[in-house]
Design goal:
130 residues; four-stranded antiparallel sheet
Length: 130
């Protein structure tokens, strides 16, 4: 089946764009909520010129941190741990913490909540990048 040329005209300008309609003076944001854990991302330069990133998650309430009450609307209890890198990185290599199945790409690290990562103990993942 052949399509007319005008069908493809709109695709020439198709881009990934986010548009927010509304009053630009209106301040709108999601309500901040306590996550139940503290997470941090630290970096240090290594001798070989790479950067070693250390991502740490520390539960604030021990094993109770990840016991969500579905009756109170906590239906998002399996959200992954997520952290943006402050800048894009190249050639990420997991140094330690591979047992937590982290996903590391050029601008973030994502760690799924699994039995290993929700024991109530702090855990650390180290990633080496260029």
């Amino acid at each position: 089946m052949e399509l007319p040329a005008q069908f493809f005209r709109g695709l020439n300008y198709d881009r990934d764009v986010f548009v927010l309609y509304g009053d630009p003076a209106w301040q709108n944001a999601l309500v901040e909520q306590e996550s139940g854990w503290a997470q941090s991302l630290k970096s240090e330069k290594t001798e070989d010129g790479r950067t070693l990133w250390t991502f740490t998650v520390e539960p604030k309430k021990g094993a109770e941190t990840f016991n969500f009450d579905r009756a109170k609307g906590s239906h998002y209890n399996n959200r992954p741990f997520f952290q943006l890198f402050p800048n894009r990185v190249a050639d990420p290599q997991i140094v330690s913490g591979a047992e937590f199945n982290p996903v590391v790409v050029d601008n973030f690290i994502l760690v799924p909540q699994t039995e290993k990562s929700t024991t109530g103990e702090a855990f650390t993942i180290q990633v080496s990048t260029r």
